[in-house]
Specification:
The protein is of the alpha+beta class and 555 residues long. The protein contains 13 helices and 18 strands. The relative contact order is 0.07.
């Protein structure tokens, strides 16, 4: 946040991060921020956003290694009446927090001189957490990466509002970026799911059998795993044929029986896990985020159905935008932006399944030219994102995920193609109208001169002359003699006629486009017929229900 003086060609920065969350319990702060906790893959089946916990521990370790400075923490919880203040260090060898300062301050904001609530009347006290740390860094080299990360966070979370402030040394190069909230529609928290039988390994199966509260093996299978109903669980136990029954106690299974159960579960074909526990950003939020941050000319979004990989449910949501003035998207290439559980992925993009799939799309088939700015946003949401490598910066090229990404991009491109075709047709109509309008004065003048010449001649009773002077049942020449038709009126009439042709052409195109879209959608639309209360007898007996639904074939 503030640039410090340079020492021995190293630059130190004081980084401050403050939120308005629920805060942290006073006694838990040292362990939450000063101790590295090892994670395990045998955890709950739940969609998680982060990759390394709170992240403050990593910052504290880097501060310890680069500057030796401790971390300073303020935290306030709603209704507690005080603000926790800590100055923490970490013993890296023992992996233990070392508390240098611990105190409870009057309830106030860390950067406020007055207790909160004592200033403005009715203002709620601050609650949340603020962390300050001094680290070594290189702002000039990583400025673009940091700003890109913040912009992508604003895209995928348009319901969040945050500010980034950089204060350079002596005010040089200072920067303030405000990312505004665009919607109040925030996805609900993810729900905890159950393991899928096809993804359980032997160690996990042992742990589940040991910790289960179920007294029967059939109940254990239906309660601990998804995609197994109680009736199906009894069928599975009966087909195992290893000497155990549906009433066997899970905790009493021998090692050989556990091994046989594990092998049997991997041989059976189960239905895919339910994606109801997933919480993607949603098409609404993704569209708003792209429009808010990039302001493109066109944007299309799509969210696919839930699928499964190695027993874990996942879904893919995507957006493709065209044009705009934002420098984040460059012309002449496909700009791919990747997310995993609503977290931006900045590195190792060339190895990622999203980047590979996006670069294989035949953009020309959808009338999308790479000469313009093309932005591709793909978010993969899963209870277990299949990262490759310990850095967790890219997702492996997995077939089922690649197919889901391809389908999502295909649907976005189809939407854009319709818009581009309509835009091109509108441009053609506009050019045609402009070309016709250019000849209106000359045409009106030529026709007007001819009519004036005909009006100046003596009237002839001959039938041929009479028929020539009649147009649409009206005698045009007498009206010219009477001054009712002039070159000006002819010009106005031609202008209205050209406008009419342009309008009819647009309506005809929209009808054709609508029929093509309807023909492409094989699903039959539902048409609802409500009965007339005043004349129920006029309706066929099968339609006399309060609300009847019919499926009509699409022409």
């Amino acid at each position: 946040r503030r640039g410090a003086a340079s020492r021995m060609r190293s630059t130190f920065y004081r980084v401050t991060c403050k939120d308005n969350g629920s805060g942290m319990p006073h006694s838990d702060i040292p362990n939450m921020l000063g101790r590295v906790l090892s994670s395990t893959k045998y955890d709950v089946v739940e969609q998680t956003r982060g990759k390394f916990g709170l992240g403050a521990k990593m910052a504290l370790i880097w501060a310890k290694m680069s500057t030796g400075q401790p971390v300073e923490v303020w935290s306030a919880r709603p209704g507690k009446g005080f603000t926790s203040h800590y100055v923490l260090d970490m013993d890296i060898q023992k992996n233990e927090p070392r508390v240098l300062v611990e105190e409870k301050l009057p309830h106030r904001s860390p950067d406020s001189a007055e207790p909160e609530g004592g200033g403005r009347a009715g203002e709620a006290p601050w609650h949340g957490t603020e962390v300050r740390v001094v680290i070594e860094g290189n702002w000039s080299n990583y400025r673009a990466k940091l700003l890109r990360y913040l912009k992508l966070i604003a895209v995928i979370t348009p319901y969040a509002e945050f500010t980034f402030l950089y204060e350079g040394e002596g005010g040089k190069g200072s920067l303030v970026n405000f990312y505004q909230r665009r919607t109040e529609n925030m996805p609900p928290p993810p729900e905890e799911g159950r393991y899928h039988p096809s993804c359980v390994d032997l160690e996990l199966l042992r742990r589940l059998l040991r910790q289960s509260k179920q007294r029967k093996l059939a109940s254990f299978l239906s309660k601990e795993f998804c995609s197994i109903s109680p009736s199906y669980a009894h069928r599975l136990v009966a087909e195992m044929g290893i000497g155990i029954g549906a009433d066997s106690m899970p905790k009493t299974l021998t090692e050989n029986e556990i091994l046989s159960l594990h092998q049997f579960l991997h041989q059976v074909r189960f239905s895919d896990p339910d994606g109801g526990v997933l919480r993607p950003a949603g098409e609404y939020n993704l569209r708003l985020g792209v429009m808010k941050e990039l302001r493109p000319q066109m944007v299309a979004t799509y969210q696919g159905d839930a699928r499964a990989h190695e027993g874990h449910a996942f879904t893919v949501e995507a957006a493709v935008c065209l044009g705009g003035q934002d420098s984040t998207v460059e012309a002449g290439q496909v700009n791919v932006f990747r997310f995993a559980n609503r977290i931006p992925l900045l590195f190792e993009g060339g190895n990622d399944v999203i980047s590979k799939t996006a670069n294989q799309v035949k953009w020309g088939r959808y009338k999308i030219s790479l000469d313009q700015k093309v932005g591709v946003f793909v978010s993969i949401v899963s209870t277990k994102v299949p990262f490759k490598g310990t850095s967790k910066e890219y997702i492996g090229d997995i077939g089922v995920i690649a197919d889901a990404v391809k389908q999502a991009l295909h649907q976005c491109c189809l939407q854009l193609r319709i818009k581009l075709v309509r835009q091109e047709a509108a441009k053609e109509r506009k050019d045609k109208k402009k070309s016709l309008a250019k000849y209106i004065p000359d045409a009106a003048r030529a026709v007007g001169n001819l009519l004036e010449m005909m009006a100046g001649r003596a009237e002839s009773p001959g039938p041929k002359r009479q028929r020539r002077e009649e147009m649409d049942g009206e005698e045009l020449v007498p009206r010219v003699r009477a001054g009712e038709v002039t070159k000006v009126t002819l010009s106005d009439a031609l202008t209205k006629y050209v406008d009419k042709l342009n309008t009819e052409g647009g309506l005809e195109y929209q009808m054709q486009a609508g029929m093509q879209a309807a023909a492409g959608d094989r699903a039959k639309p539902e048409v609802y017929l409500r009965r007339r209360i005043d004349a129920p007898e006029a309706i066929a007996p099968e339609l006399r229900a309060p609300l009847a639904a019919l499926r009509l074939p699409v022409a």
